[in-house]
Amino acid sequence: MALRAAVLRHLRVPVQFHALARRECQPTPCSGGSLRLFSSHDDHMTKDEVIERVLSVIKCHPKVDPSKVSPDVHFEKDLGLDSLDTVEIVMALEEEFKLEIPDKEADKIDSCNLAIEYVYNHPMAS
Amino acid sequence: MSFSSTAGYLARRAAQKERVRILYRRALKDTLNWAVHRHLFYKDASDLRERFEANRHVENLDTIDKLIENGEASYDKWRHPDPYIVPWAPGGSKFTRNPIPPAGIEIIYDYGREDH
Question: What φ, ψ does residue A74 adopt, rounded to 5°?
Answer without folding.
Answer: -100, 135
